[in-house]
Task: inverse folding
């Protein structure tokens, strides 16, 4: 299986990272690889909020938005 690169930005952090992953990687797989809790984030793919089952393609921009709660 080939390798692709996606850009990952965690909202609240300045840096955009380039991450190499295998083809057919899903959002859920990427979150696990990055150590992100899937229940505490929302993910935008190329500007659109998407489901965790979506597959990534080369050059995608993944933005991870932590959900903030409190009272």
Result:
């Amino acid at each position: 299986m080939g390798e692709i690169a996606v850009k990952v930005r965690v909202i609240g952090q300045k840096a955009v990272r380039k991450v190499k992953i295998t083809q057919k990687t899903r959002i859920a797989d990427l979150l696990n690889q990055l150590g992100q809790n899937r229940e505490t984030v929302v993910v935008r793919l190329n500007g659109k909020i998407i489901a965790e089952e979506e597959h990534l393609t080369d050059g995608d921009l993944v933005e991870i938005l932590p959900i903030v709660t409190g009272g």
